[in-house]
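Subject: Protein record for review, amino acid sequence with backbone structure tokens
How to read it: Take the token row as a discrete description of the fold.
Enclosed: The protein record, placed directly beneath this head.
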Amino acid sequence: MLRQSGFISYCFTLILIVSMTACSESDTAKLQALSQDAVILAFGDSLTYGTGANFDTESYPAVLSQLSGRQVINAGIPGEISREGLLRLDELLTLHQPDLVVLCHGGNDLIRKLDTELLKQNLIAMIEKVRGSGAEVVMLSVPKPGIFLKPSPVYKEVSSASQVLLENDVIADIESEAHLKSDPIHPNAAGYKRLAEAVHNLLLKHGALD
């Protein structure tokens, strides 16, 4: 009985150490500093496009450009599913040669109840394509539909599998506040501003911006 108790204690300690190490790595992960002429590619669907607000001035890529002082290209396509996004990505990477990609995709897969394992595979493939182009990537979680909006667990699974920086909570938080939304799914100008600020803070925290 004593041996069993000691073994359980050992396992608990090991799990705790692994968990603390993972958190520490996430907190201390560094991005390459973005030069003043660096290009950021915001890649996604309607949440990136800015549905519900002005594309040129109120979408989150437009506000992020103002906050960061960098060129941010809005490559959002409303209604796009992850399979379509994966097919579209190569051309954009070649055309714009970004230094950093902000990946926010999969909302339409979740709304349509498409296979989440396929979504996971598509997101991982997108990350691999971005890194293969020489750019870095950060990812934004999208909430799964429901009364109580929470980030889909797919994004943390992808983040862990691909070792990619993740902003997990901001979109779910925005979509939980009626005054930050233009409709049941999309933020308004104030909501996109909050999203841009969260992305900006993530880039500041991890060394991409100063």
About this structure: The longest strand covers residues 39-44. The first helix runs from residue 2 to 28. Residues 87 and 126 are 9 Å apart (CA to CA).
